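Sequence and fold:
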Amino acid sequence: MMFGKRTVPMYVSLKRKVDKHFQIQEWKMLTIGKDVNYVGMQWRVIEENGRRMLIGHMDRYIQELTHMPMGRKDEDDRDLTKEEIAQFKSGLQKAKWPIAKLAPELLHGVSALVQGEAVKKVVHVKALNDLVNCLQAMKEEGLARLQIVPVDLDNLATIMDASFANEPGRKSQAGFISLITTEAIKNGPVNCNVTEFQSSTISRVVRSTMAAEAASLSLALDRHLYLRLRFESLLHGEPEFSENWRHKRKVPGTLVPDSKSLYDHLAKTGSISAQRQTLIDLLVASDLHESETASVKWVPNKHMEADVLTKAVVPNDVYRKLIKDNVYSLVPTEEHQVEEGGRKQLRQGQRQRAKERKKAVWGSLSGVASPHGRGQVCIPVILFGVASPTPLGLHPHARVGVPLGA
């Protein structure tokens, strides 16, 4: 979709190019306060607080969503019948459509209901009905809508997050939200427009928080570059492609994680990951950062707006400000900076205590005879419910203790 005033030269030029390459049957005219139906949504122009903005909503569709009926005496762990499962899937897809367009904070709930066993239970139906209630409440508060405000496009910011092993089946979740904004977002609050958001299960196996963050980074980076290509095509014409096409983008971009370890790997010289795919993800992003193709900006967790896409959390004030007022900043508030300083000291203390405990364990084990031979230290651990003498460094999935190097 393309919107604009007929008196703006950029819009006139873009419309002329579109008409040249595509056969557009009708250009719809938007007027203040009047809805126009397009691709399942209603669009209108409004004026609030002295500024004009474009609104996309699905109020009528959301209001007509219904709950899936269940008996009052049904136990939460009762399996649904085949007919009930079919009804549940239909209701979930009906709720997902407006959520995926208008309500980022509810998208993680949809993803959680899609996951898990094929046979759903009564508790899943209750969760689906709660999602419908939340969506309808957001509609009544005027929050289930897409707001577009005037913005000078000279930066695309993609804020990403991940959760590790918190989903059904110990799976991990990735999420990101991309904003059309300006370079001034790095210095303070500016107007932004949400252009895309996603929440999905990480398909590959990840064995650490860093691996989950890197997988989320890979997904977000792909969509980030694609969106920059689209905007560049509109603003500057069709781009030229070569083997270094990623380094020749004309629309600047910024990647925003809240993981300090991930940021340090990208922006500083850090340790090398032992997992091959994680290493590849980090090297690709690091190369784009070093070549100034995509800058990396870290924000503390309290200033992270993509948390709602990966975890069941209450949206923070920063997210609410973005959704309600279209305002965001990559500079955390003083309160957030102070809080993050305290968390940093806490993490440093935890690492120091861990080192001291490890040193004490090695000190107490020095000189202990090993049944596996000289120079090997064994300690009893519980693996799969069975106590066995296991040498330090044994693979954690092993069932029996064997000496290192055997």
